[in-house]
User: Fold this.
Amino acid sequence: MAEIAAKVLVLGGGPGGYVAAIRAGHHGLDTVLVEDTKVGGTCLNVGCIPSKALIHAADEYALALARAAGSPFGLATGTPTLDLARTVAWKDGIVARLNAGVAALLKKNGVKILRGRGTMLDGKTCRVDTDVGTDTVRAEHVILATGSRPAALPGLPFGGPVISSTEALSLPAVPRRLAVVGAGYIGLELGMAFAKLGAAVTVVEATDRVLPLYDAELVRPLRRSLDAHGVTVLLGARAAGRDGEGLLVDAAEGRRTVPADTILVAVGRRPRTAGWGLERLDLDMDGPFIRVDERCATSMRGVWAVGDVTGEPMLAHRAMAQGEAVADIVAGRRRSFEPRVVPAVVFTDPEIVAAGLTPEEARAGGHAVRTGLFPFAANGRAMTLGGDDGFVRVTARADNHLILGIQAVGAGVSELAAGFGLALEMGARLEDIAGTIHAHPTLGEAFHEANLRALGEALHI
Ligand code: FAD
Ligand code: NAD
Assistant:
């Protein structure tokens, strides 16, 4: 049993924890990172990265199938075949490469990685149970970054045919009939990918629309695409359990069974607040999350928290930004985590990007607004890419034209998220974007034109 003294202890090696540790290393702080499984957390191992790999493979397969049936580009190929085991192995290879990369970055920055389960004994001490024994780490600063886990439904415990996103990313075969509970991020990203891979997919959503967090106008092209890909969507329908045939669903017209051999439950994620000694720390909570202030400080001196365990939005880039900020603060820099915007991307087909306020939210917040929407149907690049459904929409204050929000839906728009975030974070006005030359032909020109249109000066519509 080793007694280890450190300046900083990070509990959890996901995007929040490992970025905090690397940054603490930049500052020369003696840092220990405790991770139970593999560094990279949910995001790298069973979340963002593997899901996007599977989505890409599904896109490739669907395109190949479409080409076999003849394509408008004058291209014809034979009928493709799919070897899901090789797809999963390719995805695992990417994950392994990134795991090794993160471990190397931690090492390069002098961070000691302790592989084992950490349990907080008090606000400064952590017991770590490893394969070879138990270590105790005492640190001046503790950064809690224990992340989140999939939420389960009472009538549908995980096991057998009832799976979470984790199992969905490593299935041995494409399910013949897949029922997806929840039309949120995971349900739609993975549901659509499996539909492209050949599964008959039914998505069951409790509210009256898909992606209920996003506005109806933005989601409309996605809804059309779900129909085009043969995904059945049941709205106002609650998963109630299962029988021998599949998923039991309660809807307005009564109970019915959605035939399924596999049921993917994607009804949100819960912060991981149990099993590591949280009860021994006297921390204020914010519902199920650990309460933090704008410096990511908890209610206990020297104890900080970042990432999914601290609340919504549960996104990897928020966790990373918090991790970076908190390490700077611990190192003595004057900093805070108060972003103007945390952009969000849904990696469906078409993709959706949302940054800042929607027109409705801006009006509800008391702003008189100007909006500009530019459709990809009038964007040359979108046409040459073969997908012109969707648009970019901008909302600005009517008085001084300060941009309050930017959203887009369309093929490949995820890469526009950086520009949207930059515009909002830098406090751009409509005239700033309108006065910026956007390279031609690109999807980004639709952003330019949306701003021009909000000013009443659009050129290409
Ligand atoms: P986590 O990544 O959950 O990491 C926490 C780590 O702490 C884990 O490695 C865990 O093993 C470790 N840990 C916990 N307790 C202990 C303990 N007691 N001892 C030792 N180690 C411990 N977000 C995006 O921004 N973009 C996306 O495209 C995206 N796609 C996603 C797709 C899926 C299928 C899923 C499930 C999530 C996705 N997310 C995405 C969300 C993203 O993965 C999370 O927001 C992010 O991983 C949160 O980072 P974190 O560091 O807070 O926690
Ligand atoms: P979610 O919150 O996005 O969606 C859950 C959906 O399930 C909601 O629409 C909800 O109304 C519905 N629902 C809840 N109970 C139900 C029931 N009993 N029957 C039918 N529908 C029900 O959650 P998720 O898709 O599980 O994703 C979890 C989190 O992971 C997300 O909130 C996000 O933070 C993160 N994530 C992000 C990305 C990304 O950034 N691209 C991708 C995947 C996951």
In short: The two ends are 71 Å apart (CA to CA). The pocket of nicotinamide-adenine-dinucleotide (ligand 2) is lined by residues 153, 181-187, 189, 204-207, 212, 238-239, 266-269, 313-315, 344-347 (CB under 6 Å). The chain has a mean pLDDT of 97. DSSP finds 13 helices and 24 strands in the chain.
